[in-house]
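Table S2 (continued). Query chain:
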Amino acid sequence: MGFLILFFVSNSFFKGVEGYPITTPKLNPPNPKEALF
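Corresponding output:
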């Protein structure tokens, strides 16, 4: 379950830096879960 924490932390990080959530499918075609697994 540690990956969930890392996912939300990285999501908040990119949201703060880029200005939009990394989970937005339109802005990031590759699935973030694929990068983790």
